[in-house]
Amino acid sequence: MNIALAAECTATYSLSKYEDLQKHVEAWFIADRAHLYQNDIIDCIISTIVFCVFVATIFGADFFFLAQFPRHTYPRWYDYARRGSAAFIALGMLACSIAGTVIVAGNTAALSGPSYEDVVAIYQHPPFQYDQWSVNIAWVVLLWIATVSVFVATAFMFLGVAHEQKYGFPSLSSEKLNTEEKVPRKTHTKEQPIEAV
Transmembrane region positions (predicted)? Predict the structure, then answer.
């Protein structure tokens, strides 16, 4: 979760710089009808931020509930929801990692209107070439580490939910008596009507 937060912060910094670069270049060279196209990296950064927020929300909440209420048994709909959310987030993080790698490694910002030399005369090192800016490299590396961590956390979540559904938790009385008695998982069944005698 912390690695995803670091990837999100790095991506946010990169997004801020690219938005500022586009705004300043288009404002400075307004007579040349300048346009800086960098939507590919901006879209990928926004997706990264969204999925990193999902990581913090879902896995952070699950960690909080596990730490605060370790013996609580959750209903099946919640188990399905958290497993589905974890799988969706893991696949989204993988998609962001692949897209970020492809975009940063192979794409550049496209400039129309003024020449590149005119822009460099005003801005010393504009990050037009995505793979030449260290912040982009750090963002993609952190994103890959976070993605692997999310896949591991998702696997642990699936294993934990499966264990909880199969075995439940030890009851307090069995711990005191050192026995194997388990509290069965609550199941919602219809109550049997009492037959008249």
Answer: 45-65, 86-106, 137-162
Rg (alpha carbons) of the chain, rounded to whole number: 25
Q: With contact defined as beta carbons under 8 Å apart, do 17 and 136 qualify?
A: no
Quick one: tokens of 82? 């958290």
Distance CA 145, CA 82 (A): 22
In terms of Cα–Cα distance, which of 160, 145, 43 is closest to 94?
145
Query: Phi/psi of residue 14, each to 5°?
Result: -65, -40
Residue 32 near residue 113 (C-beta atoms within 8 A)? yes
What is the C-alpha to C-alpha distance for residues 163 and 166, in angstroms, rounded to an integer?
Answer: 5
Q: How far, in Å, are 1, 46, 114 from residue 40 at the CA level?
A: 26, 10, 21
Per-residue pLDDT of 1-50, as tens digits, reads 889 999 999 999 999 998 988 888 888 887 778 888 899 999 999 999 99
Which CA distances in Å does 35 have to 3, 27, 118, 129? 35, 9, 14, 16
Model pTM score: 0.78
Which residues are 34's β-sheet partners?
Answer: none
Distances from the Cα of 172 to the Cαs of 110, 169, 176, in angstroms? 65, 9, 6
